[in-house]
Amino acid sequence: MENRDSFVSSLGILLAMAGSAVGLGNLWRFPYMVGTNGGAAFIIIYLLIVAVLALPIMYSEFILGRKAQSNIIGGFRKLAPGTRWGFVGVICLLCTVMIISFYSVVGGWTIDYLLKSLTLSFTSSDAEIDSMFTDLVSSVWQPLIYMFIFIVVTGCILLAGVKDGIEKYSKILMPLLFVMVIIIAVHSVTLPNSGGGVEFLFKPDFSLVTAATFLDALGQAFFSLSIGAGMVFTYGSYVKRKENIVSLSAQTAIMDTLFAVIAGVAIMPAVFAFGISPSEGPGLVFVTLPYIFAQIPYGSILAILFFFVLFIAAITSSISLLEVIVAYMIEEWKLSRKTSVIISVIVITILGSFCSLSQGVMSDVLIMGSNIFDVFDITSANILMPLGALSFVLFAGWKLKKEDFMNEISSDGIYKFCPSFRLFIYWSVKYLAPITVSVIMISGLF
Ligand code: TRP
User: Fold this and answer.
1) What number is the average pLDDT over the span 161-165?
2) How many Cβ atoms from other residues are within 10 Å of residue 421's Cβ?
3) 3-state DSSP assignment of residue 383
4) Over the range 186-213, which residues count as b (16 or more CB within 10 Å of their CB) and which as e?
5) Using one digit for the tens of pLDDT, what is the confidence trace for 396-429?
6) Using the 8-state DSSP alphabet, how is residue 364 labeled?
7) Do the Cβ atoms of 76 and 331 come closer than 8 Å?
8) What is the pLDDT averaged over residues 91-107?
């Protein structure tokens, strides 16, 4: 077996984690979840979940991966030999495969919109921009081809290794993306009639909140932070024991949340200004942003820049997803990295094609009322990731001895957090997280 890769620097790990977290989840999924769940109240619940629940889960997944030094399937076998805990790995792997399948479809849309921005195709006609999106997603070949390109680019980067490519480019591109989103947000709130959107974002209406809202917020938090599906576990397995897991996780969560909230501010006011329905769904961003770009000075240049960095953000996320699968194949099936990448690219292309076609010719294939794309999306975020997260905290809080847990959190005592903070982490992993996740999941599902 080849030598296990590992990250070289703490900054590299942070960038890889942030690169994974910040992606279409922030700029595409978050705004439409906010839109379909009634706005401000959803955002408040989301922020609470990130602050209270997401971190204990991320710590748990991280320390387990670092302890196991192995892929998600072999890792659990190593941590708890001969027990049923191995099943956690299976859930996570399945979840990752589902996520990357529909993620690649949206990644393909991003490429298409990047090309559209290069050919200056955004006009200021509402009807044209609307039908541009519907025409794209419902056609057969165009989205399939771009999805395939997206998957192949992801695969090629993983072939080359993560260190020199992604670490280096993320340093430049992530700040650029951040600046772009802020520019769009400023333009969006200054559009005429954007007031409704600002109100929608900041004036909560709790009468719209149901148990399902909590589950959606939970799923969105897990999706956006990439937790509960084995990605943090896998990256954790490439991390040395001297790294500060607590601060790495907190920094990742803060960056990710900032991106999401600013993306909301960039998109919602424009949605209202242009009279689009906020509950439009997955097309929301693709319909709204071209409107803004068509209206503002230098809009066509900003559009190119924006869709380019969005594409990069999507790629840094999808490589983290693919790495979970590839690490598994290399270590468990004893394949080379190249063969593993090729096989996974083929599998994802097949599954992704169903997701893509379910927006058009296969839209009448429904499973419990939803098309294949939505089934993959909802099942992974609202069922499998919470299950994965639950398993991580239960394992870290109940199966590890308390001293071991403290040791892992403090990286063998290198980082001396104050005792009450350490105890708080331990209690949130042991009781708070498992109880809250179970309650939200059960009440949301039934
Ligand atoms: N967090 C990414 C986003 O917001 C998506 C993602 C990347 C992901 N890797 C993941 C989601 C692992 C779940 C698990 O776009």
Assistant:
1) 64
2) 11
3) helix
4) ebbbebeebeebbebbeebeeeebeeeb
5) 999 999 999 999 998 888 888 888 888 999 999 9
6) T
7) no
8) 97
Q: For residue 101, what are the contacts with CB-CB under 8 A and spacing of at least 6? A: 348, 351, 352, 354, 355, 376
Say how many Å lie between the CA of residue 220 and the centre of ligand 1: 10
Q: Which two tokens stand for residue 239?
A: 């991390």
For residue 381, which atom of ligand 1 is closest to its CA? 13
Give the distance (Å) from ligand 1 centre to CA of residue 23.
7
Q: Is the pLDDT of residue 205 over 80?
A: yes
Closest alpha carbon to 391 in 46, 65, 22, 16: 65
pTM of the model: 0.93
The whole-angstrom separation of Cα 412 and Cα 142 is 52
Contacts of 215 (CB under 8 A, 6+ apart): 382, 386, 440, 441, 443, 444, 445
Residue with tokens 């917020």: 217
Q: Give distance in angstroms: CA of 76 to centre of ligand 1.
A: 21
Protein residue with its CA nearest to atom 11 in ligand 1: 226
Q: What is the pLDDT of residues 368-390, one digit of tens each?
A: 888 999 999 999 999 999 999 99
Q: Please identify which residue in the block is written with the tokens 């495969």.
A: 97
| Residue ranges lining ligand 1, Cβ < 6 Å | 20-21, 23-26, 99, 223-224, 226, 229, 231, 317, 320-321
Comparing 150-164, 252-266, 302-316, 431-445, the range with the smallest average pLDDT is 150-164
So what's the pLDDT on residue 162? 61
Determine the distance separating the centroid of ligand 1 and the alpha carbon of 226, expressed in angstroms: 4
Task: Tell me how far the alpha carbon of residue 190 lies from the centroid of ligand 1, in angstroms.
Answer: 31
Mean pLDDT value across residues 98-103: 97
Task: Name the residue among 141, 129, 125 with its Cα closest to residue 283.
Answer: 129
Residue from 320, 328, 392 to probe ligand 1 pocket by mutation (most atoms less than 8 Å from CB): 320
Residue reference for tokens 């333009």: 187
- Of 22, 104, 321, 326, best ligand 1 pocket probe by most atoms within 8 Å of the beta carbon: 321
Q: Which atom of ligand 1 is nearest to the CA of 21?
A: 1
Atom of ligand 1 nearest to the CA of 317: 7
The rounded Å distance from CA 374 to ligand 1 centre is 16
